[in-house]
Amino acid sequence: MAGLRKIIGKMRNTKYWELSGLIVLIITYSFIIQLNNKTFLSFANIINILSQIVVFGILSCALAFPMINGTFDLSISSLCALGGTTSALICTKGLYGIKLPFAGAIIVSILICAMFGAINGTIISRTKIPPFIVTLGMDITIRGVVYIVSNNSPVGYLPPEYLALGSSTIYKIPISVLIMALIFLIVSLVLGRTSYGRKIYANGGNYEASYISGVNVKGIRFSTYVISAVLAAIAGILMTARVGSATPNAADSYATTAISSCAMGGVSLSGGTGTVLGIFLGSAMMGMITNGMNLMRIGSNWQMIMKGALMIGAVFYSMWITNTSKR
Predict the structure, then answer these.
(1) Is residue 246 assigned to a domain?
(2) What integer is the mean pLDDT of 157-176?
(3) Where are the extended beta strands (E) located within the chain?
(4) In-domain check, residue 82
């Protein structure tokens, strides 16, 4: 008994302790759904869940950079649509005279999204306009750009190599899922194992103290929005590959799901805290809710209620467990 208390005591001093509630929630939810439908924890359905969370999982990683830095980015949904639409246009019909092979289309579309991310970062890091207002305005602006360049129409007839991103597998695991896993791994290394990542956390935890200690706080803040835009573009490209066409209203409201995943995973809305593992578990939980309720034939309206309630409960538990560990 004393040994168990010692182990729990050590766990409480780690940054992963606040994820215990989410882990218990995932286990409990899985147990309940599995009792009602034996296919829920099958290999095929787990792969299906992972495939479903690819887009908003990567968007959650994108959002994590500005959120941990103490800011916000509501433009990721429109950036996701922009990345998918521009890449599809460039390798099919052409985008204002620009027509390139698949690889070139991917690079150019990512650069276009990075440019909008740079605009976000410049305004937010150089002015005192709230990030919420800047990125909300940019979200509307970019969505308008998407409708203009697509001429209000879906973009189809994608080349086979593009479609392969959404349909091909390696050892029965979809390429899109492997790309998502690679992104989570890279983001985890960047945030957890580099001085740049530590500066992002420091900025979010105490902006003034970081500035006084010599950190280039404006440069760090600027860079988080460029990274966020690049990841949103990749998410949009993978979404387009999976659907088979790019639509101007793609990823609408996906920012809300990404915020929910980050919040459930322990990323503080005030900045300075959060782990990539938590973001992944939050994304997985959001996907599991949808998948499990579909298997139980529960309507989408009740799914929204459940997602909202679980998000509030998970965030409440995270805050409670954090305050408890500080005592």
Answers:
(1) yes
(2) 93
(3) 169-170, 173-174
(4) yes
* Number of C-beta neighbours around residue 161 at 10 A: 14
Span 201-227, mean pLDDT? 93
pTM of the model: 0.92
- What backbone phi and psi angles, to 5 degrees, belong to 152? 60, 25
Q: Which helix (H) or strand (E) holds 145?
A: helix 131-149
104 in Cβ contact with 169 (< 8 Å): no
In a domain, 307, yes or no: no
Report yes or no: 234 and 183 within 8 Å, Cβ to Cβ: yes
Amino acid at 269: L
Q: Yes or no: say if 73 and 254 are a contact pair by the CB < 8 Å rule.
A: no
> Which residues fall within 8 angstroms of residue 18, CB to CB, at 6 or more apart?
266, 278, 318, 321, 322, 325
**Residue 310 in this model has a pLDDT that exceeds 80:** no
- CA angle (261 as vertex; 259, 262 as ends), nearest 5: 65
- Using CA atoms of 317, 319, 323, 324 in order, give the dihedral in degrees to the nearest 10: 10
Residue type, 66: P
| Domain limits for position 76 | 41-252
Is residue 316 in some structural domain? no
CA atoms within 13 Å, Cβ hemisphere of 317:
17
Q: What is the count of structural domains for the chain?
A: 1
Cα diameter, the chain: 71
